[in-house]
Amino acid sequence: MEEYFALSLWIWMGISLIPLVLLQFIKAPYGRYSKGKGWGPLISNRTGWVLMELPALLVYPLIVLFSPLAMNACHFLFLGLWGLHYINRTLIFPFRTRTRGKKMPISIPLMAMFFNSMNGFFLGYGIAYMFPGQYDLAWLSHPQSMVGIALFLCGFLINIDSDNRLLNLRKPGETGYKIPWGGLYKWVSCPNYFGEILEWSGYAILLWNLPAVSFLIWTIANLLPRAISHHSWYKGHFADYPPKRKALIPYLF
Ligand code: NDP
After folding, report:
1. Phi, psi dihedral angles at 34 (to 5 degrees)
2. Residues with CB under 6 A from ligand 1
3. Whose C-alpha lies nearest to ligand 1, atom 14?
4. Which of 54, 110, 163, 197 is the residue whose CA sits 20 to 30 A from 46?
5. Does residue 3 have a pLDDT over 80?
6. Among protein residues, the one whose CA lies closest to atom 3 of ligand 1
7. What is the chain's percent helix, strand, coil content, to nearest 5?
8. Which ligand 1 atom lies nearest to the CA of residue 102?
9. Closest CA to ligand 1's atom 22
């Protein structure tokens, strides 16, 4: 059974090459790249965000909580960190965006729901059924786990801080774009994506299993092309855009 699980995951990770390559040519049509037609009926931006993130919030925790797994503090920590991110992303972030009147095509939340359900399934099924005895209190005292937790929390803070800076750029009623400043915007155009990638890198180090690595790879496949698009969009729209700012990774890229 474990071999089939691992094989499915390798196939699933291979599939992540599709968005990674396609998104170099096609910009996912939400936010600044939103299009009026061609991607299905339009729904409100806010509804789209809640819908697309709901499977991420629910699938993984529900699989674990309703499994026969004898849960310990380690499992609760894994779910707690997950919840910390996804309660914000699903139930708080969409209601803080200043995107009044903006829409996204239904195909975006549908694709994201599929991606989030698959990743949630692999993470939950892995912990509850594939490696039920792997995680115990001793796991948390490994230096590797501490590095993972620290990286996750660091990424979470960067992600929240950077999203906050973006959300505060608009006054109530505004929907346009400005150059973001402060925090890691000093170095990169998309520190929110950088923070998110750090978070899931930390999570993969903490769990040290294939589903968590797969989730990280899918996150990079989505966010790397979007960071490249945002960076060139900023440079194309603002003549005074800071020339030394990189796209995603400070000083490097
Ligand atoms: P963006 O940076 O494109 O936008 C975030 C919010 O800020 C939107 O409400 C956007 O409005 C607004 N905004 C962005 N830039 C500006 C600007 N220059 N001036 C004024 N307002 C601005 O992020 P995404 O919407 O792509 O993602 C939001 C969060 O979700 C991020 O934290 C990201 O890490 C996470 N995410 C995670 C994914 C994953 O695979 N794990 C995939 C996608 C996102 P508008 O919508 O009008 O552009």
Report:
1. -60, 135
2. 31-32, 97, 99, 102, 159, 163, 166-167, 169-170, 177-178, 180, 192-193, 196, 219, 222-223, 226
3. 166
4. 197
5. yes
6. 31
7. 70, 5, 30
8. 47
9. 166
